[in-house]
Amino acid sequence: MDTGTRSHSATVRRWRSSRALIAGVAVAFAVAACGPSTGGSPSAAVSSAPVGSVAPAGSASAAPPSGEAIKVAQIAAHSGQLAQLGDWDKEALDLAFKEKNDAGGVCGRPLELTVFDDQGDPTVGVNVTRQALDTGIVAAFATTESAVTLAAVPLFAEAKVPHFTAGQSDAITKEGSAYVFRDGPPAAAFNKTLADYALKTKGWTKIAMVTNTGGYGDSERKAFTAQLTAANVQPVLDATVAPEAQEFTAQINDIKRLAPEAVYTGMEEVQNGLFAKQLREFGITVPMIGGPPGGTPQFVEVAGAAADGSIFASPYITNDANDQTRAFAAAFKAMHNKDPEFHGAKGYDGAQLLFKAIEATCANVTGETIAAELHKISGHQGLQGMFTVQENGETLDKTQVGILENGVAKLAE
Amino acid sequence: MSAWLQVVYGGLTIGAIYALVALGFSLIYRTIGLVNFAQGGLLMLGAYVGAILLSEAGIPFPFAILAAFVVVGALGLAMERLLRPLERGDLMMMVLATLGLDIVFTNSAIVLFGSEGMSVAVPVVGAPIEIAGVTMTRYSLVVIGSMVVIAFGLNTFLNRTKTGLGMRAIAINRDIALVFGVNANRMNNLALGIGAGIAAAGGVLIAPILYVTPQLGASVGISGFAAAILGGLGNLPGAIVGGLAFGVFQSVVSVFLPAYVNAIAFVIFVLVLLVRPWGILGERNVEKL
Description:
The complex is a heterodimer of chains A (about 425) and B (about 290). By secondary structure, chain A is an alpha/beta fold.
């Protein structure tokens, strides 16, 4: 029975055990701080190793690469809600780098990929970009998110290091940097395709828009609105939500009241999936249309049955489009035991463009020379289409329309 | 009118989750005098337990809630034993320790479950129900109903069982309760265990609505804490009122300024506290902490 009284020795014992406990909690803090970061604090490289620097047994007869490694960084989200974007991109880069190293490297030298986690946060992204640049990289895949890319563009321009971005915001290539390159189409291309499909193919004129205020969502909103304006169409709803919002009752309530023919969304995979789920729970069955997030496996996973019928724009709808995509998909599956999708195709295409540029600079491999060679690339057939590098860093301007049927992406008719 | 009722109803659904988190905060605070900043982390762990049982083991939903309550409740019991040496000293050390534990829970979830998150299918399917122009999804009724059942169960436990009365006695006057033979350590232990279990149940309920990630506890936990303060920290009916009110605040704000929901909801929260610092149903004289 605890009567609340204590002796002096008991007090001393309790204080000693308190000190032990405080020390234990301090250790827990330290271990937690050394563990994976969860946002708000700069994160160091999560992996650093020459990828594919050892050729597999019985493989190609190319001499293994030797000499000083050509250092490339990947800066992307590998934690938080956008982690899948970074992971997809890295998987494709791992494949591309391994294939190239197995074939003898570039300029006879091995390629080395170092991965940095920007947590999908611009502040963290800027910090890890500085860290990456300090390691002597000559190029980077940075980043997979528009908002972080916009923050990082000036740093790469100042350091004269070219970087490929998977971000879609039109603003990225309007910053005036000669060192930013897109490994996929910009928001304008996606949304022109979508607008043509919605207005001309389907004849929809009552369209509700729900986008987030992050870099991606904002660019999607602007690009799609521009298309509607050009066609003299006003959206019946133009609602914005915070990038971290996960509950959409107010917006869905408006959609229910306004009864549009379609709902356009500008949100990343997880948020888009949650929105789809909640929309269908309310009994609203009109089609959802939007950019590539609406056609990815993660969207299907989050939305579940609500993903069915989602219409999306993408330059890479299916792995079965042609021999090149089938070969890529087979190699990807052999390495990662899963099928690739659009984001992986982007990363792989970006890697091939980079390798091509580096190979033209063997005598002097620097960020500046690589960037100059990248700007000369024209008519390069990639997984997503024909790449021609423009002065502003744009590379592709065409996409297609896909639709999800039973969780599988197909070309829309 | 029905549009506004819809907005309020939407707020009540998420508010029910906040109410469960707030109940845990208030129960622990009232009994031990501790603000448990690991409550969000416990909700997140409960969400993962539920997500795994529902998605991968196919366990029926009510059993998933029960399992999460038990598993995370046990973790709460262990937490109290770990923190007990600090109880009689400076309570602030205990509060700081719960902050540390929350970080440990979050990072442990990343290590155990990965950083990408899990999606949970809504366990109740079917067309939504329309009443007076308000659309009520079936799952939202489950969430609100579950909150009511859990709150009722807690009330029954605290008022109709010897152990529950013992916890109330410790909360009202610890010294006199000790004189009457109430085991304070055991009551504190149970308070943290039950508080953790209730948070875990909230985690399972919210898992099909949101996306289960290691960061889930941070956003829901802070809203639950605000709800507990709003209702009156330590006041159990206040926790429910605060939770539902905070959910409705957020829902109403999302109509006007959806991009700034959290910021404005917290501004409203601060304004309410400026007028009534002890919370909606709280007591003027707060002795603890």
